[in-house]
Amino acid sequence: PAHLHHVVSKRKWDDTEATLQEDELDRQQEQLETLEATIREHLGTGKFFLVAAALRQIEEDKLYSPEKSIYTYAKNKFSFSRRTTNTYLCSANVYESLVEDKSLPVPVNISHIRSLHKFTPDVRRHIWKEVCHSGQTITEEHVVAMTVKYETGVKFTDLSNEIYTSPEIITLARKVLSKPQFTLDPASCHFANNLHTPPLASHIFDESQNGLHQPWHGDVWLSPPLGSDHDGSRQSKWFLAADGKFLNREITSCMVLLQVDLGSIWFTRVQRWPHVYFSQRLTFSTPTGREKVCQDASHVLVYMGDKIESFCTIFGRVGAIPGFNTWAYKSNPVHSNSLNSLYPPPMFPPTLLELESSSSSSSSSESPHKLSLPYPPSSSSSSS
User: Fold this and answer.
1) Which residue has better confidence, 354 or 58?
2) Are 246 and 383 in contact (CB under 8 A)?
3) What does the pLDDT read at residue 150?
4) Helix, strand, coil percentages for the chain (3-state, nearest 5)
5) Cβ distance 322 to 339 under 8 Å?
6) Where do the coiled-coil regions begin and end (predicted)?
7) Greater confidence, 114 or 244?
């Protein structure tokens, strides 16, 4: 009887345990269905926090089983990418830390706060307060600018202008210069300058100093700000400033990276100088650490200086240089006197083997690829 009683008691305990497990599974399934309904109801609305909180609850309680992870579950159930899932999970905590301060406006867009997840709650509230009290329209770029300012001390008026030339282009430019650094970048900031090793230029002017109103000297790198103001195109003003300073012998050389603007009168002056149209869309760095490709823009690099052949040889590998590796008009004898100076005979780029041989040789003998390129008026010939 004692043994039989033990067996009966064990069966009752097992039955009770099984019932409890079934009840727990039912409760979890009901909770999951409720959370999923919340996500579906508010997905794509302004109530992003409800979606974020629901997804976070599913992750914390591991309700995504039998899927292996919250990422697999979210992809199969809601077609979320891994980045979208991460954004929601991080934003839930950020939102809660911000609304603790009742004096601050409540975020209405998930893009406004996702860049704050890496900070502590106190820092999140500090940055959000700076954003809200700045008087500017709250955008993701504005918030990112404030995070960069907090981390680096660099303040950006317009983050859309904060795109920085890739190291690959700067490396080629340094080869033309035959120096590790430019002397000056008159349209930069310390954040951008120090992205390169060594820093791009030994001296810079930032936005607060307005390099247009400062003296320039030495070898200059210039990537002008984009857009327009009440005086017109910003990059046209900066390019024409460089053009004038070189012709007046205020600077030794200058490389200017521009967006192609063939429809503008000022851009005709660009074509008086050696220049390369890049064959591919350029990739730029940004303060957020992400890379940005300007899909709707082509770029040209203009060179003012006396190392024309080096510029053409090096940059001819990555783009089209009129008169060097692209078609150029060849005049007939009747018009040779008037046209030869404007339209040199077509020149062809050296082969890769010749380039490698040339770069490895230290000989000072005359290059077999002697260039005769269009160049500014004779008034600048002594300085260039």
Assistant:
1) 58
2) yes
3) 80
4) 45, 10, 45
5) no
6) 18-45
7) 244
56-60, 112-116, 315-319, 354-358: least confident range: 354-358
Helix (H, G, I), strand (E, B) or coil at 129: helix
> Do 214 and 188 form a contact (C-beta atoms < 8 A)?
no
Q: Is the pLDDT of residue 89 over 60?
A: yes
Say which DSSP state 137 is in: P
Dist. CA 361–CA 364, nearest whole Å: 9
Q: Distance between CA atoms of 384 and 381, rounded to whole angstroms?
A: 5
In Å, what is the CA distance from 320 to each residue of 131, 197, 283, 316? 44, 28, 18, 6
Strand-pairing partners, residue 184, are: 203, 220
- Bridge partners (DSSP) of residue 258 are 300
Tokens of 303: 């060179």
Q: What's residue 183's pLDDT?
A: 98
Question: Which has the closest alpha carbon to 216: 177, 188, 236, 258?
Answer: 188
What is the secondary structure of 264-303 as a DSSP string?
STTHHHHTTS-EEEESSPPEEE-TTS-EEE-TT--EEEEE
Give dist(CA 172, CA 176) in Å, integer: 7
Look at residues 89, 122, 92 and name the one whose alpha carbon lies nearest to residue 107: 92
Sheet strands side by side (includes 299-304) = 201-204, 182-185, 219-222, 253-259, 299-304, 275-278, 319-320
The DSSP call for residue 164 is B
The answer, as to whether pTM is greater than 0.85, is no
3-class secondary structure, 304:
strand
Rg (alpha carbons) of the chain, rounded to whole number: 31
